[in-house]
Design brief:
about 170 residues, mainly alpha, DUF1440 domain-containing protein, DUF1440
């Protein structure tokens, strides 16, 4: 939505602050990450596949944290690796939320369903393409369809929460 700073014919579109949009988006990304974690936990409980989850490889966020720490000469194990994986997950989610905020008012296709598309895009490009290419997880064809579907659902929850938070904060500050 374009806001006008003056009455026509002297009207010109009022520009939003990029920094403000980035910060609102980062807040949405952080809340979206929280909602995504809750969705993943709920999906795991509903699918009653606890024994399968325990046998899976370490999460991609923990692999990324472990590899980064090894590059710095630090060995991560146990609880420290899990905490570092959480830092990676929350940082990634908050960063992409900031990107969402920066794009929101500047991309013509950013309508009401922008959050769904954003979450879908992160799932496809992040989980399905980048994570396997970086060898943080097995290739998509070696992952069960059930895992793909639960990850897709969690990313849509992330995107819609990030979008909703961005819109609420933007309205509150207007």
């Amino acid at each position: 939505m374009i806001r006008w700073s003056r009455l026509r014919p002297f009207a010109r579109p009022e520009k939003r602050s990029l920094l403000q949009d980035i910060l609102m988006g980062a807040a949405g990304g952080a809340l979206g990450t929280f909602a995504m974690n809750q969705a993943q936990a709920l999906i795991a409980r509903l699918s009653e596949s606890k024994e399968q989850d325990d046998s899976q490889q370490e999460p991609a966020t923990e692999v990324a944290a472990r590899k980064a720490a090894e590059g710095a000469g630090v060995k991560l194990e146990g609880e420290r690796k899990k905490q570092a994986g959480n830092v990676v997950h929350w940082s990634y989610g908050t960063l992409w939320g900031a990107v969402h905020g920066a794009l929101h008012e500047r991309v013509p296709l950013a309508g009401k369903l922008f959050g769904v598309g954003f979450g879908l895009g992160l799932f496809l490009i992040g989980d399905e393409l980048a994570v396997p290419l970086l060898r943080l997880a097995p290739p998509p064809q070696k992952v069960p369809a059930k895992s793909h579907l639960s990850a897709l659902a969690a990313h849509i929850v992330y995107g819609t929460t990030a979008e909703g938070t961005y819109r609420l904060v933007r309205r509150a500050l207007a």
